[in-house]
Amino acid sequence: MTKLDELISILTKEHVYIQMHNYPDQDALASAYGLQALLEIKGIKSTICYNGQIDKFNTLKMIELLHIDIYNNKEFSMEAEDEIILVDGQMGNVNMVNFIGRKVACIDHHPKQEVLEYRFYDIRSQIGACASLIAEYFVENKIEISMEIATALSYGIKMDTANLSRRASDLDIDMFCFLYKKADKDILFGFDNCSLRKNDLIAYQEAISNLKLYGRVGIARIGDDCSEAIIGSISDFLLTVSEVDFTLVYSYRVGGLKFSVRSESKTVDAGKVIKEALSGFGDGGGHATMAAGFLPNLNTKQEIDEMAHLIEQRVIEMVIKS
What we know:
Layout: H1 3-10, E1 15-19, H2 26-41, E2 45-50, H3 57-66, E3 70-72, E4 83-87, E5 102-108, E6 120-123, H4 130-140, H5 147-160, H6 170-180, H7 185-192, H8 200-210, E7 212-214, E8 217-224, H9 228-238, E9 246-253, E10 256-263, H10 270-277, E11 283-286, E12 290-295, H11 301-321
Helix pairs in contact: 2-4, 2-5, 4-5, 4-6, 5-6, 8-9, 10-11
């Protein structure tokens, strides 16, 4: 049996939910969109859903131009017996809310969490993009892929691997080559030309003004209420500074501090660093090269400043020791 055959065999409902993480990015959206098409071919209807918000402009353009139907948790009602397939995230991750339905399957490329609840899982942390796993399902099952799905999946791979330069495995490269030939090049080009809005430039200005260097560690607080997407983008941006190979970028939002971490050091695991740094106060995790975390329940300026300083010091100490 192929992975797709295994997945289909464990589903008992004619309709399932495909759940993305709380702030869906291009890879999560592409993976859910591709999986929805595969399920449809096998006679299973599905609803793509998430909790939180989509706050990156080019992700919104994907939804618009590729006509992807997705639903926030406020827009549908789920029952306890409904079946959920998780994509690009797992239960136990800080950015995956626990919906009421049964989490029967998981397709992901992040480090493996607890998997006992799933009837099926395909979790390969050595792969750079979840979209590559979905693309492989099309290939190994000899299923024709539409231009729209190919466009979405190739863009998901492109973005999560930073143009195949970050954590790109042989599978990512092979699947991107396969998909790119079938994708709409004009739409892909259009996505790249709408990644920033004018207000985002203020956050970049804050990052440049507030950047602090500790050895090869770059840390920047970029103001309040910055989107998940822009925090991650600035973390990537600061990693291009020649003196930096580890970045910590954060913003105060939704009652807490949101952190984004990047590492180019072979001895420093970004996911482990942020998880340990937030231990006892919040939660975090991710890949060795890119990770995120959240520290909740901060209400006063003094609390925010004190906790920000503590997390900075914990990160600096761990990175310097590594």
